[in-house]
Predict the structure of Saccharopine dehydrogenase-like NADP-dependent oxidoreductase.
Amino acid sequence: MSDDRKRIVLVGASGVFGQRLAAMIARWSDVMLVLAARDLVRLDAVAAELAKTGPAATIEVAQLDRLNPVGLSALGAWAVVDAAGPFQGQDHAFPRAVLAARAHYVDLADARDFVAGFEAALDGQARVDQRWAITGASSTPALSHAALDAMTAGWTRIDRIEAAISPGARAPRGLSVIRAILGWAGAPVRVFEKGRWTIRSGWSEPRRTPFPGLGRRWTSLAETPDLDLLPARFHPRRDAIFRAGLELPILHLGLWALSLLRRSRLASTLEPLAVLLGEMAGWVAPLGSDRGGMVVSVEGRDANGVRRLARWSLVAEAAAGPHTPVAPAAATLRALLDGRLGEPHATPCVGLVDLDAIVRELGDLPIRTRLESQRPEIPGLFPRLLGDTWDTQPSSVRQVHAGVTPVTLRGKARARGASGLPALVRRLQGLPPTGRHATAVTITPTADGERWVRRFGVRTFASSITADRHDPWTFEETAGVLTFRFGAAPYPGGFSWTFEGWRLGPIPLPRAWAPRIRARTFARDGQDGTDIYRFRVLVAHPWLGVIFGYAGRLS
């Protein structure tokens, strides 16, 4: 055992978030990780699972109750991390005890009142003891602020901020999280909206929020520390909103309906329903997915005074979502170990670690992040959607989709598709039969998009591509009565169309019923060295097989 290893005590190590943070810290060779909670049996099980991974850190267990932390000093902690929660309704006695034990303190608090009073309660003691006291090292406020710092560097003005989070229905959920939500659902919430402070109700104003890679999910106003910290740190002129949602509409809208009991003063709190609602969520979880996400959007003016929209998003697959809230705590601890935080004091976890450091802690997990920026006032649908990456597109792609003048391209395309019903669909839509065909495509700019007319031999397939009125980051393609919604993402040598949702006329259709769509627009060098415009489209369905697919080159 190395004497220079730092002892990190992780309180709540047997919980949903604690276990995941323990796995991150266990990879560090310069620490001794003490797993702490009230139940030693569960702690031993967590330690046994960690041992199977071959941890670089030394692992110990210790019984500790954060509400009565007898024996904390005896643990000899260099830092204590509180991942237990809930923090709603808690005072600052435990972080005071940690500082009194001469240890640094970090927590995952998402409770607005706890974070709001943290600095005033602890800063004097932290500075005297020369120990850090850091609160909110989680999705809110640490991750949301890190994303905003990355997006708005150099901006001269911020008009609006909105963040939203939505876990997958099948992702693990702790009882403390459910209690926390029920603690403010239906309660008065102070929010900065339309340039002034006003009162709204928690879990109110349900609407469908776009989550890149996940489609649209129901979200409502959430009570988080960001409602105070976003206006204080970024000074938006109009709004600073944080929303949260449940993947399954029956759960999200059901909780909204329950919140009306508190709004109408028929109930003082919904917290007694936590166990029952947690069980009900488990019953219906198989109807949802294990995919969760987070999105942070901002509007304002960049360094040149040009109007900008920027968006950072995260998609977690395979129930990896609960790792996201603990990544800021891991990044903060790592910075603390490396001596990168500066002079100790008490503070919310904003501006301490950057976005790259947080995302780095998620690097070995099925989690994807993306940062986008656009200038909404430039002409052309795709130049606007692709934003700063538009100038990197090949010249032929930029010429075709500049959105200024009509363009007609001619060449060859190869089509394929299954027989039976898919063949009938292709014929009704004007799509070609299997084989190679002379092809002409006319793309005509419109007021809000493009009109495409494709001619494959003697057949014609037309569609309209327009900006999504409800989401500046997506576009819609309408052919007949069906409309498909896509995002545009950079792709080697061009851009891809990322399917986001579909509808029949005005009626949204379940994403699970949708065909699988892959579409690419790109360019490659021709024999004379010039880049040749190319396209590749594949539409398949699990029940029907390949409905249609075509690929070709045009000039």
